[in-house]
Amino acid sequence: MVKTGHPGSAVDAMTDHTPPAVIPPVIPTRRTEAPSWNQRGALAARPPLPLLKLSTKRIGTAVYGLCTLDAGGRIADKAILTALGWEPQQRLEIRVSRGLVGIYADSRGIFTVKSNRLLYLPLAARRWCELGAGSRVLLAAYPEGGLLLVHPPTVLDEVVAQVFDSVWGAEG
After folding, report:
1. Which of 15, 105, 157, 163 could form an S-S bond across to 146 if both were Cys, CB 3.0 to 4.6 Å?
2. For the structural domain made of 63-167, what CATH number should be given?
């Protein structure tokens, strides 16, 4: 270091800070095999995800629809009636079993398709199934049998719970 006699001089500053000659290299250690995704930390404790069974090809000919009942119990789904081939004045039988409403063509039936191509669920059937104004129902028409099933929310809850249990079981 060159001394000029003046502390903090430019020559002092330049000569005081010399970098080291060589910086040692950082060499990563080699692994012969990368850890698999399932062997790391918290993921190792998790079981693999279950594989879902693919649904089978649809074999039925059912036609589905959703509708909201009004205060008079009107079913307003003309696509369903068209699929069933029901015209105005078609005589129908309506039965309720286990909360499900079944409607089918019957020449001796006391109910009919109205002239505006609408169906009306009788008050007794709506009460048995706890259906009121604004209730949403699933309609399932089976044209080959001339049958319309009206699925109230309580029935749908049971069906969905059974499907959920059969698909997901105790995992859900």
Report:
1. 105
2. 3.40.1550.20
